[in-house]
Design a protein that fits this description.
Layout: H1 3-22, H2 25-43, H3 46-56, H4 59-68, H5 72-107
Helix pairs in contact: 2-5
Length: about 110
């Protein structure tokens, strides 16, 4: 078998494996979260936000005012990060509940 043909086949197998792994929520959601967080850090200076937030003292009021007075791209990214975080927490909660019920049945 030609070496280049073998490499092409193995690359195809790797791509299929990777695409199937992306369907799992514990792989895709953290990947999307990290991508959005990296994109957010491109638009926003996070150390400056943390410094200003500490100086203001009222974290919730500062976050709300900063969110309302920023541009649409940053608002959309923040909302997407929050949604992905909620989906991940929901899936993690369901996974731990199913795991706990499976462990209870095995012990009994």
């Amino acid at each position: 078998m030609n070496l280049t043909v073998k490499k092409r086949i193995m690359f195809g197998v790797f791509v299929l494996y990777f695409v199937r792994k992306l369907k799992e929520p514990f792989v895709s959601e953290p990947l999307i979260f990290l991508t959005l967080t990296a994109l957010l850090s491109y638009f926003v200076s996070i150390p400056n936000i943390l410094t200003n937030m500490r100086a203001d003292g009222n974290f919730l009021r500062y976050f709300i005012m900063a969110f309302l007075n920023t541009n649409f791209v940053v608002q959309a990214i923040l909302i997407a990060v929050c949604v992905i975080t909620m989906f991940f927490a929901y899936n993690l909660y369901n996974f731990t509940g199913k795991l706990a019920s499976q462990l209870r049945y095995r012990v009994a």
